[in-house]
Design brief:
Family: Belongs to the endoribonuclease YbeY family.
Protein name: Haloacid dehalogenase-like hydrolase family protein
Helix content: 25-40%
Shape: elongated
GO molecular function: endonuclease activity; hydrolase activity; metal ion binding
Structural class: alpha/beta
Radius of gyration: 31 Å
Oligomer: single chain
Cofactor: Zn(2+)
Keywords: Endonuclease, Hydrolase, Metal-binding, Nuclease, Zinc
Distance between the termini: 22 Å
Length: 594
């Protein structure tokens, strides 16, 4: 397993510290927490005729040189749809570090040079076989590239290259680190060190201080976003490994004194060296500078709003922030046509693929939820809902746990049921009763049919006798269906008063009023399921829109309300997302779940 690099520990520099001499300032850099460092065996390769020792490691060790931040470079970035060269970063100093004490070594032959290369994976980058295989390849590839680049310095005719590093033969050891990370991590570095609030593909941080005359050449660090690299690899038609190799070459040349940002001539010289190294190494692809210009010539200029969502395959580069997502259906996962959009379905599948567990929490019956989700290939054994999976249904009145076993069932008072039936018959207002996997009604009506045809609930069975209706089965809730105006001006005011403390009224849709047992809420149902599963509310994200989602959003560590949601629901949410007709669930997953 590859080791993880502990995040940078920040230290504020005092005014006196900022006035220190240049040499003493170079003693300040980030500290690595030893708890997160795991040494791995070092491998030494000897190549004739100069006995070049190559020591490469896939882990950080306490002796591994950390970022010193003397120079900070980045390749051109795509901002607003147009490629541009970033402004020169200049010199940046930050964070405190003392150099490690050098161990006394036995005298070495002049010709012997040890290349110490550390390949690191940032700790928040999830385990991914392709990334780990690439790290293994870099352990072998980077020393080869370093040796070739050093050989090129001997007879270099470049006019613009800074010559702080001229003859590596004067050193005993050359140290270099390469870190693989995601866009979020490199964006923070880019903002902190270069003042640019967007991700980039590669950053180079020089650590070489000529004035110190050390026996070790600490070249510095190359930080690569594998997320951006993956997008660029797809655009340029080669593999992720090819793109990362190109980024390594680009970053290494910056550390050797090349800087395409200072002038056109400097850009041309660095471009030539990139192409030469890639060709000599037999690596695929054009140099980064040339590739960027190719895209600039062919891409159509367009402006895009900044977007912090992690889209599509980009989720593979992030660890989930939560263990579970609890998601409502009507008005949330389903659009205004009661359908699951392709984008929402894809996002749910990707989330589960990346280790998140998705649980449906809905006012629907379990058969109704399964019927809709089956259309999007989300039901069944490998889906997010089935007869053997956890779920919260019928406003939290039916809760199923592991293997789909019933955890809780809440029933409506029989006297209240009888009164609702009599009211329905007297006023001709259709009523539907939910009894586990069945729906019951007193008479046929187009609105009753719509519950089946539009909302995919089980087709209601007609039982015309009130006594038989009540005796038929335990009833969890009843729904009155009418116009929006009829519900708000007549039905809701009447039943809010008539039920007293025997029942509660809940409204998930503007043209429906639900009568449920007192204290009923999805939040309570979710809480019971979490207790059953042994999961903390801090581990869940919840997405909803209706007033019946309020307690669930309040319970969750992160609650997302749809922009089409009720005002009371939006008021308690941590954030208001886009609407259910704009793939609101997908947006929430890509933006907040990872």
């Amino acid at each position: 397993m590859l080791s993880r690099l502990y995040p940078i520990l920040r230290h504020n520099l005092s005014t006196e510290a900022r006035e220190m001499t240049r040499a003493s300032l170079y003693h300040h850099a980030r500290l690595l927490h030893p708890q997160f460092l795991r040494p791995s065996p070092r491998i030494t390769l000897v190549t004739a005729p100069n006995r070049l020792n190559v020591t490469s490691s896939l882990s950080s060790s306490p002796n591994f040189p950390s970022t010193l931040h003397r120079r900070f470079h980045a390749l051109r970035n795509l901002v607003g749809g147009e490629w541009k060269l970033p402004k020169p970063a200049g010199r940046v100093f930050a964070e405190r570090r003392e150099y490690r004490k050098m161990r006394k070594r036995a005298p070495k032959r002049k010709q012997e040079l040890e290349l110490s290369v550390s390949i690191c994976i940032e700790e928040n980058l999830p385990d991914d076989n392709e990334i780990q295989n690439i790290a293994e390849m870099l352990r072998l590839n980077v020393p080869m590239a370093m040796k070739l680049a050093f050989n090129g310095l001997k007879d270099s005719k470049y006019k613009t290259r800074e010559t702080d590093i001229e003859d590596v033969g004067g050193f005993e050891t050359v140290e270099l680190s390469v870190m693989l990370c995601n866009d979020e991590f490199i964006c923070k570095l880019n903002k902190e060190w270069r003042g640019e609030d967007h991700p980039t593909d590669v950053l180079s941080m020089s650590q070489h201080v000529p004035e110190l005359k050390l026996p070790v050449l600490m070249m510095g660090d190359i930080v690569i976003s594998v997320e951006t690299a993956a997008r660029q690899a797809a655009e340029r038609g080669h593999s992720l490994l090819d793109e990362i190799r190109i980024l390594v070459i680009h970053g290494m040349l910056h550390l050797l004194g090349f800087d395409h940002e200072i002038s056109d001539e400097a850009e041309k010289e660095m471009e030539e060296e990139e192409e030469l190294l890639l060709k000599s190494l037999g690596w695929k692809g054009k140099g980064l500078i040339q590739s960027a210009y190719d895209i600039e010539k062919t891409a159509k200029p367009h402006l895009e709003k900044a977007d912090d969502r992690k889209k599509g395959d980009g989720l593979r580069f992030y660890r989930p922030k939560f263990s579970y997502i609890f998601c409502d259906m009507d008005g949330t996962l389903l659009n205004s046509k009661s359908q699951i959009s392709e984008a929402n379905a894809k996002a749910l599948k990707e989330a589960t693929l990346r280790g998140l567990k998705v649980v449906i929490a809905t006012g629907k019956s379990r058969p109704g939820a399964m019927k809709i989700l089956k259309m999007a290939d989300l039901a069944g054994r490998d889906g997010i809902v089935s007869e053997s999976s956890p779920g919260v249904f019928v406003q939290g009145l039916l809760v199923y746990g592991r293997q789909g076993k019933e955890v809780y069932r809440g029933n409506l008072d029989r006297d209240v049921c009888r009164e609702t039936c009599l009211y329905s018959l007297e006023h001709g207002i259709p009523l539907i009763a939910f009894s586990q996997d069945r729906c019951l009604t007193l008479f046929d009506h187009p609105l009753v049919d719509s519950l089946h045809t539009t909302y995919n609930e089980p087709k209601a069975e007609i039982i015309s006798s009130v006594d038989q209706f009540i005796a038929e089965a335990d009833i969890q809730k009843v729904i009155f269906m009418d116009t929006t105006e009829g519900v708000s001006s007549v039905i809701r005011p009447y039943w809010s008063e008539a039920t007293g403390d025997r029942a509660s009224v809940v409204q998930a849709q503007s043209d429906m009023l639900e009568i449920v047992p007192p204290g009923t809420s999805k939040g309570n149902g979710v809480k019971m399921l979490l207790n059953h599963l042994g999961v903390s509310p801090n581990e869940i994200m919840a997405i909803g829109d209706g007033e019946n989602d309020i307690e669930m959003l309040e319970l969750a560590s992160w609650g997302v309300a749809m922009s089409n949601g009720a005002e009371k629901t939006k008021a308690v949410a941590d954030v208001i997302g886009v609407s259910n007709d704009e793939d609101g669930v997908a947006d929430a997953i890509y933006r907040y779940a990872f």
